[in-house]
Design brief:
single chain, mainly alpha
């Protein structure tokens, strides 16, 4: 099956170049749509106060918008590595600002400690990589789901944790049909993940 947005995915560099111009509102809208979930996930894993999450997200977007024109995209292997670095740095700036504004070092240390309990600093790159794969997989599944019947999607989802024979019996379909439905969804999902990784990275 053709990737859901195969032609669009092949223009990832074009989208980033358009965003660099800073005058293309549609390009910026598309950029946000592609990376919003990933950015929010990283922020939440760093244990930012819920009341500050949206403000920090907006600061990250502003920094990206300002810095995009300076990037040499031709020399950049993976844009997502730069994106993750911007998010990470903005989070650290958040904690430093909180310390200065509150003038309570104890509160700052408590927040840093809380962040460390959830995601230790040496492991942050691993977390960022894991969340990237989760983000891409979720986007890919959403994209391919519209091309399959509800039954096919249910068979595939259940097959991740259940025996295929039991699933076939529950749906009252031949085992060969259950295998076929699972295989078709899986093949399309893997193809979509590959396309998204090429486009978004």
């Amino acid at each position: 099956m053709k990737s859901c947005n195969q032609d669009v995915y092949m223009t990832r560099d074009t989208l980033l170049h358009r965003v660099q111009e800073q005058f293309d509102e549609m390009a910026w809208h598309d950029f946000i749509a592609q990376y919003q979930g990933y950015i929010y996930t990283i922020i939440n894993r760093m244990n930012i106060r819920a009341t500050d999450v949206d403000d920090l997200y907006q600061k990250i977007l502003i920094k990206l918008w300002k810095k995009m024109p300076e990037l040499d995209l031709e020399k950049m292997n993976r844009f997502r590595s730069y994106l993750a670095a911007v998010v990470r740095n903005c989070v650290h700036d958040y904690f430093r600002t909180m310390m200065r504004e509150n003038r309570r070092e104890e509160a700052f240390i408590e927040h840093e400690s809380s962040m460390g309990a959830r995601v230790s600093q040496p492991d942050i790159d691993r977390v960022i990589e894991l969340e990237w794969h989760n983000h891409v997989a979720a986007e890919a599944f959403k994209n391919v789901s519209i091309y399959f019947s509800e039954q096919a999607i249910d068979v595939f989802k259940r097959s991740l944790t259940e025996d295929i024979k039991e699933i076939a019996a529950d749906f009252d379909i031949p085992l060969s049909t259950a295998y076929r439905l699972r295989s078709r969804v899986k093949a399309s999902l893997l193809k979509e993940i590959s396309a998204l990784n090429t486009y978004l990275s």
